[in-house]
Design brief:
By secondary structure, this protein is of the alpha/beta class. It has 19 helices and 23 strands. Among the domains are: about 5-65; about 80-180; about 190-275, no CATH class; about 565-695. The strands form three sheets. The protein has a 17-stranded parallel β-sheet. Mean pLDDT is about 75; it is low at about 1-25, about 60-85, about 300-310 and about 315-330.
Length: about 700
């Protein structure tokens, strides 16, 4: 980090740390003034940097013209169970921003595990109705806010008969009037509230409150009147404080306890918990404000964002006319540095300057025309983060190529190619192509020499020879097709941490092994072959933490025993003839093991004592030739919590040794296998009787 920025961030951190009380207006004003001065200085530095980079780019273009060539970058489903009679259970979180069809789809997926993408809304409703008529079910709709949710769903769900039930949880009192049976959650009793608080605040001390803090703990508990969430939050906050009466009394004295009723009481304790966070975590927490509710946020996305100044989010506006007289125009006079647009419709372009905006994020925009883009992007001269969804025209996106300060670009839109102007983004660090139709990487991608992360949900390739080896700073490359010498170039990417490569051919085997073996910093590797030819891969870097192999192997490489850092392993379609359990159980840190059509033998070896010392999840899928599973010795798999077996069509019985499991799931298993585990008459029921959650699908 440059010295100027180190100093700037030090000043900001100092200002934030010295703001101890909400009512200290002098400190607040001082912090605001320091921030303003810092951001103005940052703008000057950024503009100077842009001018220097622009001059360098012009010189490079001039030199290339002279030389005549161009040089060579889920709230979601929570629970699902089924018993032997075919009854079904579904738990679906609804929240405030629900879509009724998404709720229907979630319930049906839980009931049937259906693939619904190709079905119309009418077909989904009819399928759910038919299913509810045929079986008993229990559906839990969690966190419902809108009374219309039940009105929209009762016609579908009520036809399940008297033995079926729908449970709704809500914090909205208006929903109470439409329910037949109401169970109102009472506040915690004093003893239970005290036990919960002590457990959170003194977890490292076994939940025991020191005598000198008992009186202060009781005063804190009085403020929340048995509200569980507030008690949990406050307990977590106090667990980070010094265990002295002075430190606890400061919290009581500094906190504004007035107007502490209802939802406001909960908001205040959450606010206090936020204020106690370190400055680096505050920035990460505030990033969440820019995403829609229930939006799945990638951790990589948060890593690429920083909080620069004030924030503005325009959300759920039916008609947003962006003009001088409009309300949004008045807001934009504040000149935000980060702008997030959610579910809005635009009819006019803004007349206010956006030259201070560093981050522009757009979600679920129902209409965003190229003229809008043509107008707005030239103003975003200092933009560093750009996230665009639901846009289908390459015309407006061409303007992005002029945003030379851009560091992070996320495109989730229906475009088939990348605009050629993107080659100007010499400062780009991250390029994410989600849900696009881009499958061909242009040759100029190799000019983005500062690129660190290149991610696509499609398997991308290039119609021309691609000099991917020029991207020496690349840390993530996913997902790319192995062709035209690309496998050989991968060995030049010495900074690579994550590699997902598809279309690997048998003739690539030796070259691929040499390239992978040279990547000493590689943490995640995913390989998929183009056919069923066997590959010979003998060398894997010892740094690997996650490995997925989707290709036929002659046998497990001997280098597997050296993968001491490996925590997750997927073996898919490997069709090994040798038992994989024997070498794999020696891996010291392996936590998740998934074997999917990985082994063709009839007998899977047992597990010796102390084998798989850290394994917590084991999945066996489509092991159709497997008939017998060897003995699991005592003290083997000591940490195993979950076992799933699917399509084990010939497996006769479950071995003993899984009594400590928390979850066990079977799918498409032989009837005799299931009968042996039956609660009443099964001869093997003793092997699973202490497992709390068993599912037969």
């Amino acid at each position: 980090m440059a010295p100027e920025r180190v100093g700037r961030h030090a000043i900001l951190s100092k200002g934030c740390s010295e703001r101890r009380r909400e009512n200290d207006e002098v400190a607040k004003t001082w912090v605001v003034q320091v921030r303003e001065a810092a951001y103005e200085a940052e703008e000057i530095l950024d503009k100077f940097t842009i001018q220097v980079e622009t001059l360098q780019l012009k010189r490079e273009r001039k030199n290339r013209q002279l030389k005549g060539f161009l040089p060579l970058p889920p709230s979601s489903v929570l629970q699902h169970q089924e018993n032997h009679s075919g009854d079904r259970y579904a738990w679906v979180t609804v929240s405030q921003t629900y879509g009724i069809m998404e709720v229907f789809k979630s319930i049906l997926r839980e009931f049937r595990k259906d693939v619904l993408d190709s079905m119309s809304d009418g077909q989904i409703i009819e399928r759910l109705k038919d299913y509810c008529r045929e079986r008993k079910y229990l559906a839990v709709l969690d966190d419902v806010w809108d009374p219309l949710v039940w009105e929209n769903m009762r016609v579908t769900l009520i036809e399940g008969g008297r033995q079926s039930r729908t449970i709704i949880t809500t914090r909205n009192a208006k929903l109470i009037s439409v329910k037949k049976a109401i169970h109102e959650i009472e506040p915690l009793r004093e003893k239970d509230a005290q036990e919960l608080f002590h457990k959170k605040a003194f977890n490292s001390n076994g939940g025991s409150c020191p005598e000198e803090l008992q009186a202060l703990a009781e005063k804190l508990l009085e403020k929340y009147e048995g509200l569980p969430l507030a008690i949990v939050v406050m307990g977590g906050l106090m667990s980070r404080q010094a265990r002295t009466p002075q430190a606890w009394k400061r919290i009581l004295d500094d906190y504004n306890w007035e107007s502490n009723e209802g939802d406001d009481r909960l908001s205040r304790v959450l606010s206090l918990s936020y204020e106690d966070l370190p400055s680096r975590l505050k920035s990460c927490f505030l990033c969440c404000c820019f995403f829609p509710e229930d939006y799945e946020i990638w951790t990589e996305t948060l890593d690429c964002r920083r909080i620069y100044r004030n924030m503005l989010q325009i959300a759920q506006v039916e008609k947003l006319n962006w003009t001088v007289e409009s309300a949004s125009g008045a807001i934009l006079k504040e000149k935000p540095c980060r702008l997030s647009l959610v579910d809005s419709t635009f009819h006019h372009v803004p007349n206010h300057s956006l030259d201070r905006v560093r981050s522009f994020m757009q979600f679920e925009i129902s209409w965003l025309a190229p003229p809008f883009m043509d107008h707005i992007f030239p103003q975003l001269t200092l933009l560093r983060v750009l996230h665009i969804e639901s846009y289908s025209s390459i015309m407006g996106l061409s303007e992005i190529g002029n945003l030379v300060s851009l560091r992070y670009l996320h495109l989730d839109c229906l475009i088939g190619e990348l605009p050629v102007t993107f080659q100007n983004l010499q400062n780009l660090r991250t390029l994410v192509l989600m849900g696009t139709q881009v499958v061909n990487l242009p040759k100029w991608i190799s000019r983005l020499v500062n690129l660190r992360h290149l991610f696509s949900t499609n398997n991308v390739h290039s119609d021309e020879p691609l000099a991917i080896g020029c991207l020496r700073n690349l840390q993530t490359l996913a997902s790319i097709v192995a062709k035209d010498g690309l496998v050989r170039q991968v060995r030049k990417l010495t900074e690579l941490r994550c590699l997902h490569m598809a279309g690997v051919r048998k003739e690539d085997g030796e070259e691929l092994a040499a390239s992978i073996g040279s990547l000493r910093n590689l943490l995640y590797l995913d390989l998929v072959t183009i056919n069923e030819d066997s590959l010979k891969l003998e060398i894997f870097p010892s740094s690997l933490e996650q490995l997925r192999i989707d290709e036929q192997l002659e046998k497990l490489p001997s280098s597997f025993i050296s993968l001491g850092s490996l925590t997750k392993l997927w073996l898919c379609n490997t069709k090994l003839s040798e038992d994989p359990f024997m070498p794999l159980q020696a891996l010291p840190n392996l936590a998740v093991l998934i074997l999917w059509t990985a082994y063709t033998g009839k007998r899977l070896g047992g597990c010796r004592a102390r084998g798989f010392p850290n394994l917590n999840s084991l999945v066996l899928y489509a092991m159709e030739g497997l008939e017998e599973w060897g003995e699991v010795e005592e003290r083997a798999m000591p940490g195993l919590l979950f076992l799933r077996i699917r399509l084990g069509t010939k497996l006769r019985m479950l071995p003993q040794g899984f009594e400590r499991l928390k979850g066990l799931e079977f799918s498409h298993m032989p009837m005799k296998f299931v009968e042996r585990l039956h609660q009443d008459v099964g001869e093997d029921h003793y092997k699973v009787r202490y497992i709390p959650n068993i599912e037969f699908l």
